[in-house]
């Protein structure tokens, strides 16, 4: 049995995000095409004899107690499997916080995977996803990763053909958007246009990057882009720089642009990196876990 486990927690983007209904408990019913990207946090989990969960991170404003999703996931696994050892976790954050990139969910997923390995728990992927759903709707996808259709409240994951090779530019403005607030505001108005999720799936099956980009859509943009016009400005600037399409990821505010030309993507990256968005500008690509 190992005493330490290091794991990468990858960010995600939504190639398509649609709301198709709402459950009686208030949770939204979704259809989303989700994609892991190369931007990742690094987490190291260590077994200790303290009997406590201790978290350290390179960001001093992140909670390290029960409000941290890694803490919640670790506590949940330890409780379920009767683990009495202490767990030390070091989180090296690169994924921006409150960005629509599932940074917290990917870290929680990493905790479940790491503890399964450290304590040889023998959890199946389904076991992990069931646990993950109690922490957050994006956690099951982050456990599975790659390219996938997420349905229900996000807990029903179907693996899809891998996204074609491309460059993905991520730009996050210097503000956050509350996921809860975004969904509440979208409820206050009718959704006039739904993305064609099946068309995105079909394009993935054909390895058709043009088809994927042409059908991208996110119903939460109607709220966030109206409230924050800068998001439309970033999207337009990415397209001017050569992106085949650009869209907000999740509840935002991160905007991503998809490029089939690596040189154009690099020039766009340099353009944004030298701007007011430089701190949270990243050039990456799809990851198939």
Topology overview:
Layout: E1 4-22, E2 28-48, E3 53-57, H1 69-81, E4 86-92, H2 103-118, H3 125-133, H4 139-144, E5 147-152, E6 156-159, E7 167-171, H5 179-187, H6 197-205, H7 209-215, E8 217-218, H8 221-227, H9 230-240, E9 245-248, E10 255-259, H10 262-273, E11 281-284
Parallel strand pairs: 1-8, 3-4
Antiparallel strand pairs: 1-2, 2-4, 2-5, 5-6, 7-10, 7-11, 9-10
Helix pairs in contact: 1-2, 6-7
Features:
globular, 289 residues, alpha+beta, Alpha-Beta Plaits, 7-stranded mixed β-sheet, 2 domains, Ribosomal Protein S5, domain 2, 4-stranded antiparallel β-sheet
Query: What's the shape?
Result: globular
C-alpha end-to-end distance = 24 Å
Mean pLDDT: 94
| CATH architectural name of the largest domain | 2-Layer Sandwich
Count helical runs.
10
- Derived from helix and strand composition plus strand pairing, the structural class reads alpha+beta
CATH overall fold name of the largest domain: Ribosomal Protein S5, domain 2
Given as residue ranges, the uncertain stretches (5+ residues, pLDDT < 50) are: none
H/E element sequence: EEEHEHHHEEEHHHEHHEEHE
Largest sheet: 7 strands, mixed
Rg on CA atoms, Å = 19 Å
Quick one: how many beta strands? 11
């Amino acid at each position: 049995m190992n005493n330490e486990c290091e794991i990468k927690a990858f960010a995600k983007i939504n190639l398509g995000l649609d709301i198709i209904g709402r459950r009686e408990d208030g949770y939204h019913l979704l259809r989303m095409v989700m994609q892991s990207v190369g931007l990742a946090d690094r987490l190291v989990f260590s077994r200790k004899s303290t009997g406590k969960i201790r978290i350290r991170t390179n960001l001093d404003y992140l909670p390290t107690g029960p409000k941290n999703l890694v803490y919640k996931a670790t506590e949940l696994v330890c409780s379920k499997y009767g683990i009495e050892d202490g767990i030390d976790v070091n989180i090296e954050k690169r994924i921006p916080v409150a960005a629509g990139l599932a940074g917290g969910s990917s870290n929680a997923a990493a905790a479940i995977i790491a503890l399964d390995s450290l304590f040889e728990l023998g959890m199946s992927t389904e076991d992990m996803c069931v646990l993950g759903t109690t922490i957050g709707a994006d956690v099951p996808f982050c456990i599975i990763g790659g390219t996938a259709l997420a349905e229900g409240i996000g807990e029903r994951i179907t693996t899809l053909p891998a996204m074609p090779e491309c460059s993905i530019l991520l730009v996050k403005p210097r503000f956050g958007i509350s996921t809860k607030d975004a969904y509440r505001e979208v409820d206050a108005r009718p959704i006039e246009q739904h993305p064609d999720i099946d068309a995105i799936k079909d394009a993935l099956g054909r390895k058709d990057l043009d088809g994927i980009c042409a059908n991208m859509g996110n119903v939460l943009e109607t709220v966030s882009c109206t409230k924050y016009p800068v998001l439309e400005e970033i999207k337009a600037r990415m397209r001017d720089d050569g992106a085949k399409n650009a869209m907000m990821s999740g509840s935002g505010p991160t905007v991503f642009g998809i490029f089939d030309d690596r040189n154009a993507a690099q020039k766009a990256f340099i353009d944004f990196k030298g701007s007011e968005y430089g701190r949270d500008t990243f050039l990456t690509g799809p990851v198939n876990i």
